[in-house]
Amino acid sequence: MINVIVCDDYNQLSNVAFEIMLSVIKNKADATLGLATGSSPIGLYQNMIADYDKKKTSYKMIKTFNLDEYVGIDVHHPESYYSFMHRNLFDHIDIEEKNIHIPSNMGDDLQKNCDDYNKLLAENVIDIQLLGIGSNGHIGFNEPYTAFDSLTHIVDLKQSTINDNARFFNNDTSLVPKKAITMGIANVMAARKILLLATGENKAEAIYQTIKGKIDESCPSTILQRHNDVTIVVDKLAASKL
Ligand code: F6R
Q1: Active-site option among 47, 68, 88, 165
Q2: CA 67 to ligand 1 centroid distance, Å
Q3: Measured between alpha carbons, how far is 171 from 69 in angstroms, rounded to an integer?
Q4: 121, 118, 143, 105: which is closest to 33 by C-alpha?
Q5: Cβ-Cβ contacts under 8 Å for 189 (sequence gap 6 or more)
Q6: What is the mean pLDDT of residues 166-171?
Q7: What is the dihedral sign for C-alpha 176, 45, 91, 23?
Q8: How confident is the model at residue 161, as a pLDDT?
Q9: Are 154 and 51 a contacting pair, CB within 8 Å?
Q10: Residue among 80, 135, 138 whose CB has most ligand 1 atoms within 8 A, to mutate
Q11: Looking at ligand 1, which residue's alpha carbon is closest to its atom 8?
């Protein structure tokens, strides 16, 4: 079931997302969180940090699993998702480094890294999976026509995604990695609860398809219609085609 919450602006969206995230953490001190990078969750992460500063909500027992990581840039590159997550959230709360999981892009055997991540995900059910969405309906880096039963795997990024992400690489598409490791769609669907955030007009068609479109691998996010606990929080622009 998909519950849609339309917000006036990004600030309100981030507050609504924070309340949902906080209720999971308050109910379960050792919750497992599935996290995302990108622009959409930054306000939510800022709210989590502000709440940690003021109210000392503890993350000592929380485990996290990130959706994805680029391949071909060093893990300490400022735009790696490892760096993004530490800069925007982990460095500012009391989470233990050992409880942080991000697909590893290191070493020669990336398939083994995928297999190891799948094994960990099989052992740890995600209580809440945070998602952004691509303008083409991708979730994680599961681009159109990724199999709905996919697990963690290596992907070639679509040109549209490379273009979307060039803003983080001096607007130079040649600097954007061309491959990534991503949790698969089946891993995402295994989460107990899913929270998807989207803003802006360029997400409106993807949001429309997610909620009202035919469930089809041509738009990966349409699979969410088969999950029993999805909340989509959007601003007015992203909701404009609903
Ligand atoms: C990020 C991820 C991507 C983004 C999506 C939206 O970990 O997996 O699917 O969520 O590309 O990105 P933003 O939020 O920057 O619009």
Answers
A1: 68
A2: 9
A3: 19
A4: 121
A5: 148, 223, 224, 226, 227
A6: 93
A7: negative
A8: 83
A9: no
A10: 138
A11: 140
Q: Helix/strand/coil (H, E, C) string of 33-46?
A: EEECCCCCCHHHHH
Tokens 């398939």: give the residue.
111
**Assigned token pair, 6:** 């339309």
Does 19 participate in catalysis according to the annotation? no
Q: How confident is the model at residue 158 (pLDDT cuts 50, 70, 90)?
A: confident
CA–chain centroid gap for 181, Å, is 13
Distant-in-sequence, close-in-space partners of 122: CB < 8 Å, separation ≥ 6: none
The set of protein residues with a Cβ atom below 6 angstroms from ligand 1 is 36-40, 67-68, 132-134, 138-141
Q: Who contacts 236 (Cβ-Cβ below 8 Å, separation ≥6)?
A: 6, 7, 8
- Please name the residue that has the structure tokens 């001190």: 29
Please state the pTM of the whole predicted model: 0.97
In the set 127, 143, 164, 235, the catalytic residue is: 143
Judge contact between 20 and 195, C-beta under 8 A.
Answer: yes
Residue with tokens 């020669």, as numbered in its chain:
108
Q: How far is the CA of 119 from the centre of ligand 1 (A)?
A: 24
In angstroms, how far is CA 166 from the centroid of its own chain? 18
Residue minimizing CA distance to atom 3 of ligand 1: 140
Asked about 143 being catalytic, the answer comes back as yes
pLDDT digit string (tens) for 21-30?
999 999 999 9
Q: How far is the CA of 134 from the centre of ligand 1 (A)?
A: 6
